[in-house]
Design a protein that fits this description.
By secondary structure, this protein is an alpha/beta fold. Helices cover about 40% and strands about 15% of the residues.
């Protein structure tokens, strides 16, 4: 795994934990017929043809043993780090696998836009940006967040200067200090206000609603939720 990461220089990190406040254990709940975490992994691999290594970054807490066991059973690379200091967990993961750049994915996003991610990766590789995102100016629906970053800018930060929110939401510091970095923001050109739409899973109701969408389009290999939303 480590050798492969060094060759590709880019990894996809999926952040997962069991102690979600609004919907505990959601990452291992089923969306229609597939476990949410596996659905996201398979969705990415399908569209990238397994090109990029995927690492599930969880915590060392006993509760997250279930995530580790599930990943091991399904041959998904898993890393364990700090629970609440996600910034620190990110750096720990970067160091272990010698990652040069990474894509951040949260494990509550079953419709993660892999095609958008691929466009972002191409722009990231061809240019000298520190971060490529769609969150500086928010035009995409919730659940379609995508962020790609150089690992170096994370390692250059003195973590003692970060507040609790910056430790939990790992890109907040860079967005607050965007003039110091080379950032590029993807915007969605649409007459409809898409940012008010939510495609992430935070409640039982959202789990049920999104499961219905997957059931309705179960014969579709890749559900492009953005097209459906438009």
């Amino acid at each position: 795994m480590k050798k492969k990461l060094k060759q590709l220089r880019l990894a996809i990190i999926i952040y997962a934990r069991m102690n979600s406040k609004r919907l505990p254990n959601k990452v291992l709940m089923k969306v229609d017929s597939k476990v949410l975490l596996k659905l996201i992994v398979d969705r990415i691999n399908l569209q990238t043809k397994n090109k990029y290594p995927i690492i599930v970054a969880t915590s060392k807490q006993q509760l997250d043993n279930e995530i580790v066991a599930y990943c091991n059973k399904n041959k998904i690379e898993v890393f364990r780090g700090d629970l609440n200091n996600v910034f620190k967990r990110t750096i720990q993961c970067i160091d272990k696998y010698s990652i040069k750049s990474f894509v951040r994915v949260c494990a509550d996003r079953p419709f993660f836009d892999v095609r958008l991610m691929k466009r972002m990766i191409n722009k990231f590789k061809k240019n000298n940006f520190d971060i490529i995102t769609n969150q500086l100016t928010k035009t995409y629906p919730k659940g379609l967040v995508c962020e790609i970053s150089s690992a170096k800018i994370f390692k250059d930060i003195d973590q003692n200067t970060l507040d609790s929110k910056e430790k939990e939401h790992i890109f907040n510091y860079f967005y607050k200090n965007q003039k110091k970095y080379r950032l590029y923001n993807f915007k969605l050109n649409s007459l409809k206000d898409m940012k008010k739409i939510n495609y992430s899973i935070n409640t039982k109701k959202e789990l049920v609603e999104i499961s219905k969408i997957f059931n309705k389009y179960k014969k579709t290999k890749y559900i492009d939720i953005l097209k459906l939303a438009k």
